[in-house]
Amino acid sequence: MALRSKGLLLAAVVAASTFGSGAAWAAQCGNNAGGFEAWKQQMTAEARSRGIGQRGLSALQGTRYATATIRADRGQKSFKYSLKKFMQVRGASTIASQGKRLKKQHAKLFANLEQRYGVPAGPLIAIWGMETAFGKFLGNSNLLSATATLAYDCRRSDFFTGHLMAALTLVDRGVISASTTGAKHGELGQTQFLPGSVLRYGADGDGNGRLDLVRSRADALASTANFLRAHGWRRGAGYQPGQANFGAIKGWNAASVYQQAIAIIAKQIDDG
């Protein structure tokens, strides 16, 4: 699983406005496990001062340095492929064929989402398939440990510290728990949201009054549609490269091959 942008700049701005600027974090980052426990104590104090409650603080104290997360963060390769190779590796033809079936199977859900957010089924299904094979592979890493590890790691400490604070807020609110699992970069749910994006764009798609991006496909897809709308999606406009809505797809993921693949797969699904 590779790190997606998920609106990296916007998410960083959200984190900064909610929890203070990244430059204000005092906890000392590190490049190996050696300083993690000391950092954790410093970060717990900072989190408390920024309004994180006892449930979130206890969850932070229970985190462990995630070596597998660091290994994955250093080893991202697929985004360097050509578009053709990327689509082969990521199973684009299978996503498109299964996506057409899912569009028919859940026609009412996708019609409701398009009415509410203006986003058609194709891009939502393409993202859903690309991220988790339609909910089959959600990741088995402890979400808080993965996020805490990346917040501690000096490579992108400021960015992931904002997401860590968001994750602890979600724990306080009961949206996730200390044992919640996700992908190796701390992404959650059927379309793989980073914690700050869950906090900002999470939407109750099934109307049950709870947010569950893991077990509820409606919540996951509504949140994805909400994200795309917030990133400039225009109802009825095209989403291929050069068209009005391609920019919203760029907001979802910073990699050019990913953006193009989503647009191609989505068109295949929407064209039926």
UniProtKB/TrEMBL annotation:
GO molecular function: peptidoglycan lytic transglycosylase activity
Pfam families to which the protein is assigned, alphabetical: SLT_2 (PF13406)
Signal sequence interval, chain numbering: 1-26
Domain Transglycosylase SLT: 36-239
Gene3D superfamilies in UniProt: Bacterial muramidase
Keyword annotations: Signal
Domain of life: Bacteria
GO biological process, one term: peptidoglycan catabolic process
UniProt keyword Signal present: yes
Glycosyltransferase among keywords: no
InterPro entries in UniProt: Lysozyme-like_dom_sf, MltB-like, SLT_2
Protein name, UniProt field: Lytic murein transglycosylase
Species annotation: Nitratireductor mangrovi
Species classification: Bacteria, Pseudomonadati, Pseudomonadota, Alphaproteobacteria, Hyphomicrobiales
